[in-house]
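Pipeline run #58 for the internal structure catalog. This entry was flagged by the ingest filter as a single-chain record with no existing model, so it goes straight to prediction. Upstream metadata was stripped on purpose; only the residue string is passed forward. Reviewer on rotation: M.T. Logging verbosity set to normal.
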Amino acid sequence: MIENIPLEAYNYVVNGKSAIEWIMERYQVTVNKDSGIKNDPNHWAEEQQKPHYILDLLLSIIRVSVETVEIVNGLPKMRFE
């Protein structure tokens, strides 16, 4: 379980969603309702002998999100006239 994710990490938005939400949505276990086929990204990670791949990816996204938000917030404000 990942705890204490900084709230500002959710301010880094990709295609209308926070990057964290985007990753969690893309890497969740799903079952096709028509075929019943289960898609479990964890199986791919295990086959590649990288069982922590999704966790490591999520931790990286959290860090990148926080750092990006800090950089963007530190940029000077632009005025358009």
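catalog note: The CA atoms of residues 12 and 30 lie 25 Å apart.
catalog note: The first strand starts at residue 13 and ends at 14.
status: ready for reviewer M.T.
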